[in-house]
Give the backbone structure.
Amino acid sequence: MNLRIFPAMSAVCGIVLSTAAVSGADPLLRPTAVAGQRGMVVCVSPPAAEVGVAVLRGGGNAVDAATAVALALAVTFPEAGNIGGGGFMLIKPADAARESVCIDYRETAPAACRAETFVHETAQFGPKTVGVPGTIRGLDSAHKQFGKLPWRELVLPAVTLARDGFPLDAGTARALNGLVEKHAAAFPEFARVYRKPDVTAWQTGDILRQPDLAATLQRLADAGPDEFYAGRTAELLVDEIRRGDGFISFNDLRGYRAVSRKPVHGTYRGYDVYSSPPPSSGGTAIVTMLNILETFPLQEYGRYDPRTLHLMTEAMRRAYADRARYLGDPDFVEIPSHLTTKEHARRLAATIVADRATPSREVALDIPLADEGESTTHFSVIDADGMAVANTYTLQNSYGSLVVVRGAGFLLNNEMTDFNWRPGVTDRMGRIGTPANVVAPGKRMLSSQSPTIVTRDGRTVLVTGSPGGRTIPNTVLNVLLNVLEFEMELDAAVAAPRSHHAWFPDVLRVESAAEDRDAATLTQLRNWGHQVEAISGRQGDAHSILVRKGRVTGVADVRRAAATAVAE
Ligand code: DON
């Protein structure tokens, strides 16, 4: 096993910091669980987690901490942390009587885009692929509704990290070296901002300073969030898009709104599960799958029994067919209300055959098939009063569109690639062309981001979520079942090998450790007709918090980059 893990715990000024460097880490090996009662941040980047905990220690609540962490990650995790992208923040207030809310700050299609705009487009990067960014409006909305500390105080730590720099972890150093070399000609500003100043290769521990980004963040600290949408930053952004013949205008920026939505809610064996509503498919898919699986005695079968994996796969296949058929921006398409009902799940469950994989074609015969896309980051926060935040946000691909706004130092997303670019073209490779997610001006592209909070009797039990594009709802399903059905400890639940099926391609993907350990299970699944593929990469990165018997435990998933869990 080519495992590199450094579970050493170091106590720093009352902060417990656990760091794990990953690259090829074996998901079967347990990450470090960190306990703490007075608030916790679990995220991909140690300096960003420290920012969050400092906010908690300074009297901020979980939303204050989440806001500061999101801004810090835009500096220290440029792969996916962002101010030029979008996402979803699920907030459970400390007061059990107050409803949870999901802030949808998903990007929108610029007004100039139409259903046919991308029909002949092949480039997955560049200025045309940029959706109107939502992150700053989303953080602004969360902060205005729930925050306690002044906005400026939450932005300044990110300014410092950008101005003074922070040490690169191995994964980011490697990624930047590769990207700068490959894309310097097509994306010169990317190369200028992310190349090592002496033009040698970045090494682990080298300090990355981002002066343009520091200046942008300073403007946001001084003038407030509107600056991004109507101030100097907006001007720089629109100039950049114009230079690249892209679509975003001032009006698009000025008109952008984050939306506070009711989370999707389901129940599973007495637990309440809250997750992201449309325009994410995450919550709907997760609740559909849980409802289906609740009708089977999985615990009796066991976690890696072929029957359990078969049923999980069949639930995934059916939920993802619903996703393709129905889901999109709820402000543009009517989302049927039955998808998350127990009755719908019972109907779907009745179509599952115990010893045969259902061909994906059969579960959605109404969708015509033609003959014949990863980075995001999730973090979880809880404060001493029990307010919890699950936040997933993204630039879409790692480093988004690769377009850095000249003079402003931040990356723009390539989220437009999440729309169905070729209406009518749904194929066996996983391309979807159904009407619900076709481009329209101002419309939000369908997402899979699934920040999720589980409660029991109004109290937070689990905070989780993950990156991984279309695999996200399935990663969250794996973690939820591990905790709620199989009663695993959080470190084991996060480490356990994951599986993924997305309707099309009609393939069951499993993390390779499962192949080694559960060869007999996988053989049985193949005999039942599943096309099983062991993947060498990892599925997701689920930074999670569990509250069980009054004990709060944070676990930073070690599947990607450096990870950290911090508790006071
Ligand atoms: O919102 C979505 O579904 C995607 N744009 C997320 C992309 C992603 O997770 C890439 N990740 N690792």
Q: What stands out?
A: Residues 263-365+449-547 form a domain with the Serum Albumin; Chain A, Domain 1 fold (CATH 1.10.246.130).
